[in-house]
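Hi R.,

Here's the chain you asked about this morning:
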Amino acid sequence: MSVNRRSVLKGMALTSIAGVTATGLGSALAAGPASTVTAQPLLALVNEGPAESLFLYGAMAARDSQSQLQVQRVDRDPGFMLEFERELRRGVPMNVIGLLDNASAALVLDMARSGGARIQWLGQHSADAGFSRHHLLRTEIAEGCAQQLSHQLQACGAGFSVTEERQNSAVTSRQLVASSNQTSHSAQWASSIGYLLASLGAPTTLNIPASPNTSLPVTGSFVSFSIKA
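And the predicted structure, written out as tokens:
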């Protein structure tokens, strides 16, 4: 893929994510039939970075030996996006989760909607030193995930704000805020999101694992998602 091609795609993605934010996330969810749990391998889309590494740590903890987790680092393979779009348009069944920067995530979400896939979870996350903010839009299959995330962050002493909305629901959004008392766990949100998305729709008795300590700052803006095609 040429530099010009990448620039065009990135520009399209930035426009798309701005639209998602302006519409309260609602238009980003594609309509579709309710999904069921299958034995399909799970594909995790990430970029390089400490937040993405912690996301994978949580996702791998949620998968048992019978469930394969495939990892695609999007920033290492620019051609992956074109192949991903072709597979979606062909109707290839897939389960996809991810934690990406705003531009990359917008492109993936646009492709998923165009390909008729169902977006089961969409989260916007921003993190700085000692505090993280999360705006979550979910479908029925992700019932209870926002509460689990809030309880985990509160239990480990992380400072956070979680706002949850449900697709096509008249119920007002719910929000929980807590101040930080242990800055060493401020990055727990990334591994918790990875765990929750990797276990969507599957019963589990495991506790969300505590994130490993990292010397690199986990700051910036990210988008998490779960896609069923």
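Strands lie at 42-46, 69-73, 95-100, 118-128, 131-138, 159-166, 174-178, 220-228.

Let me know if you need anything else.
M.
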